[in-house]
Amino acid sequence: MSRTRSASPISRSVSRRSLLAGAGAAGAGLGLAACGGGSGGDAGTPESDPDHKDLVMTVWGGEADKLAYQARVDLAKEKFPDYTITLQLIPSENYEQKVQTMISSKTGPDIMQVAENVNVYSSKQQLVPLDDYISAAGLDMAATFGPVGENYRWDGKTYGIPDRSGAMVLYYNKDLFDAAGIEYPTADWDWDTFLDAAKALTDPAEGRFGFGGVGWWPQWFSLVAQNGGAVLDPETGAPSVNSPEAVEALQWAQDLYFTHKVAPTAVDYSNMGPEMGADGAFQQGLVAMNSTGFWAVGGNAGIDGLNWDIAPFFHGKEKAVSAFGSALVIPTAAKNPQASFEIIQFLTSAEGQTPIADLGQDVPANLELQGSDAFLDPEWLEADANLEAFPESADMIFTPKFIPEWNEMQKSVDDAMASFWLGESDAQTTADDLQSRLERVIKPSE
Amino acid sequence: MTVVDAAAAPDRGTAPGPAGRPPRAKMPPHRRKEALLFYLFISPWVIGFLAFLLGPMIFSIYLSFTEWDSFTPPRWVGLENYITLLTDDPIFWKVMGNTAYYAIISVPLGMAVSLFIANLLNKKVRFRKLFRTLVYLPHLIPIVAVALIFQMVFAPGAGPLNQALSLVGITGPNWLMDSAWVKPALILMSLWQAGGGTILLLAGMNGIPKELYEAAEIDGASSMRQFWSVTFPQLTPVIFFNLIMGIIGSFQVFAQVFILTGGGPDNASQMAVPMLFDEAFRFYHMGYGSAIAWILFVVIMAFTALAFATSGRWVFYESEVRS
Known about the structure:
The structure holds two protein chains of two kinds.
Chain A: H1 16-25, H2 28-33, E1 54-60, H3 63-79, E2 84-90, H4 95-104, E3 111-114, H5 118-122, H6 131-137, H7 141-145, E4 153-154, E5 157-158, E6 161-167, E7 169-173, H8 174-180, H9 191-201, E8 209-211, H10 217-226, H11 244-258, H12 266-272, H13 278-283, E9 287-292, H14 295-301, E10 308-312, E11 323-329, H15 337-347, H16 350-358, H17 367-370, H18 373-376, H19 389-393, H20 406-417, H21 427-441
Parallel strand pairs in A: 1-2, 1-3, 8-9
Antiparallel strand pairs in A: 3-11, 4-5, 6-11, 7-9, 7-10
Helix pairs in contact in A: 3-16, 10-11, 20-21
Chain B: H1 2-14, H2 29-63, E1 66-67, E2 75-76, H3 80-87, H4 92-121, H5 128-140, H6 143-153, H7 160-167, H8 182-191, H9 195-206, H10 210-218, H11 223-251, H12 255-260, H13 272-282, H14 286-314
Antiparallel strand pairs in B: 1-2
């Protein structure tokens, strides 16, 4: 999810998200408390009021996101001249609280962007199930979006249409690879080839590390999945983080820091500078490889003298990699869900997503567009980066179950693993501890 | 303190008294005008309190007895939230302990530091005004920027704090990543902003009559003796004010924790209000969060009441006569 892009727990840096939230959050509480009870509602397809033509769409992000969303909304307005669509861009750090307030005070949007938090809303009957609309429109989710099409299902119903979806990929510094005399990474790399390269690229004398680390959940969740384990059971969402497969993957991950010393610990990062994480260290040539999302393409391209490229993330016994994405959903309070759906269908078509590619905002979820030159060879990117790595990774994307307790799960992970990533507890102890914490917060679906 | 007195005085004059009280028309015109002005000036606070605080406060008492995710209707659970918090929550006691640790150390320490600085700045030194400005300046910097600065200061190897410690042969800790040192780090950071209290104390010092010092000098009192026997007793109303505000502020510490540590590592620096925020606005347990708020309210009230109860013994007002 791109809005936590800088919030890697291993480099517990001051993310922009928490900065602004800290500034604004203190006063956020009381207004909401005054709003009174929420709406109940049943889960069926609600009536549409065809006279409701003023639609509000909420998304999160910054300036670049605003440009891309506005361009898409403008395209939608041309397509549906009868509707007025108002785009509300909310700063990422306030998004969840803001839509929570809007929905509880019954002024919710008609179209809403969601990510891993989708089932916070769907499990509380706040989203319109889309299956009837999808079948009526003849939309083939699997063909259009690949495995990501399944991500936004809960309790047998589909609640979201994927909008943005880019796999985590491996960024690498070509100059450092050349200097060390190593072949560039490929999709064929496994744990052993990766580790050999990371060791060769590490140079303590220069303060340089081979790899940016795996302390952020999309990274080590991927490793657990690659080893045949799962942090959350894919069917029920029940935690299974202390399975032998998961523990083995965690131990391998921890060894990168303390046995092989190929990745900077939180202490190392805080000594590199304030707000320093793997993305920044990569740009400064302090780490030679970094696994992160699409946003680093724009960031790296802006650094003079950085000679970099992208490859798909390496694999273990199995192929699995996390992705960062979001979907568009319809809140139950929307007055004209039929219109909302038509607009969402257009926005997630290849045509409606083209500005995402043209402006370099993100990876469009629509596979047709993801494989086209509009995305792979865009005008905004001068560097000759191998954007093929994104569509190439699309079929190995694994998605953890988006449980309604997602935020609590994240907090438990941060709490339980703080000492693990500092090398103060081993994989089995940490996994057992985390498992019991997760069992306390997660109520698995049957 | 004087503000409160000035506001309370006209109120006594206009408050509806018992039956048999002289009719309103007898009030002299200048008193009437004064009373009107009082209501005019107090109204923004009264209206603000009634409209924006009292309603939500009452609602949050109700919510604390329910389970509410803010979307579906609240479900009445009686005292369950309170019972869970006090007997079954894995982190609540740790969090309350952290908050008390922070408050009980940072408040007296901050008051001592600001009194010390105020006393220095009250001396006739060169560039006194410049120093006074510099001492107050950190108080004006947004907490977000302060947190960024201290992230650098606390860096384990490259940070100036640990580098200074290493000069005297001490290996500094991993301040923000070590569960034993993260709370002292937050307290250190709070001391940097002690300038707010200093300014109030300086104003109080300027109000102490010079004759007292002259008399003390004639009696042969050393400057130390003058400080403890003249300056300090005369300042106790300001110190008392700083204490009350300090207790309230430190129990509600939020932004520093939220930004700098996120409550980590493993809740070693988690405090009551950040926990409340997490529960209510990130985990969608609005009722549970409300219960935390009311427990915190009781704790703050208890400490404030304690401070007021003991104040008679050590706070001296100018008009007071003590034997």
